[in-house]
Amino acid sequence: MAVSIFVKSARRTCALVFVLAGCASGTRVTHENLNGVLWIQTSAEYYAACTNTYAAARGQLDRALADPAWTAPLEQTGGAATLPPAVVLDVDETVLDNSAFQANLTATNGNWSREAWNAWCREERAGVVPGAVDFCNYAVEKGVTLLFITNRDAQVAEATMHNFAKVGLPFDPARVQVIGKTAESDKAARRKALCEKYRIVLLVGDQLGDFLSVPKETPAADRILLAKREAERWGRQWIALPNPTYGDWEHILTDSKASDEEKLKEKFGLLKR
Ligand SMILES: [Mg+2]
Known about the structure:
Helices cover 46% and strands 10% of the residues. The protein is of the alpha/beta class.
């Protein structure tokens, strides 16, 4: 009897291991984005990291407003002391949480497409990044304009504002602007244009391109050098949120034309052991 139970239990265990780990080949069956999406959706650590970041940003905003010479963008080169203060923020994974969209791609082995993304934006179902509501409302109370530079299409700007309203972010057009994607995804030109009208005191984002111009296909090591070159700005004028699920950091690791199998092989080859 005891042996029979043991055998059944062992069979079940083997079946489970086979499904999870692919017993026959030794290859584990999983999805590259599974842990990243679950970290955002289930972990206390993600909540803590974002709340921590936005609480620190609030302190930096107070310092910035008290110092008329304080500016954040590399593009703001002239005197800006007399201009009204503004904060420039990214939208996705900076204030809006689109992990449900990423979760769907992960669960279905789907690929990102502009059509699917725009449809998601129009659903106005994105959640909010922890800490973002308090920070944004605090900034508006202090008389700061919120300028959202996003690579969402201009056609979903209105839906984006509706989504802001649903999650408690400020959405009064007199104090909040959403500046969508132009011909180029690089945000430097849009930042520069806003520098003519505002003293931009903080940049807030989840991608390196939210802070400085990054040429396309810049290798990972050079991206780190670009970030290190501005070491004094991080945590002061530049506020970075975590996003382990997507971004140029991941795109540039592999040849975009390669097959999924080849990309996976390239990624394993990059592991430092
Ligand atoms: Mg983003």
